[in-house]
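#structure-requests
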Amino acid sequence: STLFQVWMVGSSNFGTISTGLWLLCNKTCTQLPVSSRDEASLKAVQAFMILSIIFSVVALVLFIMQLFTLEKGKRFYMTGAVMLVCWMCILIAVSIYTARFTGTMVYSTNPHHGYCFILAWICFCFSFIIGILYLVLRKK
């Protein structure tokens, strides 16, 4: 959801317009036009989504390492903690995007959420569930 440009979708005289965190796409993609008052919010969303990807990869590496090094009955505390940090990053990013950019789209009528926005909220839910499961998971 971080890379693709379908966070908001709308229609215009030229067809369907979609925006993401980086680009505005109609038939071709251009840099996303952002007002100076919304620029800091967009940068924060971009940064927290990238951080969530990084923490997700770190959690995967930690899980694999702990899977082979922990004794039976030990818990995956570090992996769970990293996944909960990933969850928090997604929460912050998607909340800022929802508060600042929902319903506003340049050159568009009838804007609505795209699949990347919905996918980001689904990732939010799953990262929380996975983080909690890692904290209570025992290696058998």
